[in-house]
Amino acid sequence: xxxxxxxxxxSGQCVLTAPTVFDQSxxxxxxxxxxxxxxxxxxxxxxxxxxxxxxxAITVSEAVGDPGADTGADTGSGxxxxxx
Length: 84
Hints:
globular, about 80 residues, 4 strands
């Protein structure tokens, strides 16, 4: 999973949806990724945060929620991967 701060519009939807995975910078309000590989318990929250992001700044890999999988295969900026 990754975030694109250039696409971030500082809405904070990601932080409200998955606060243990995302935060916002105190300086500019842009998204900060706290966990690049959240575990299975957070997969639904992460996918929802990506879907709610108005700037489509969150990229979720197919393997989010699968701790043993390679998370390098992104599905595209802001898209939501299928459950692992």
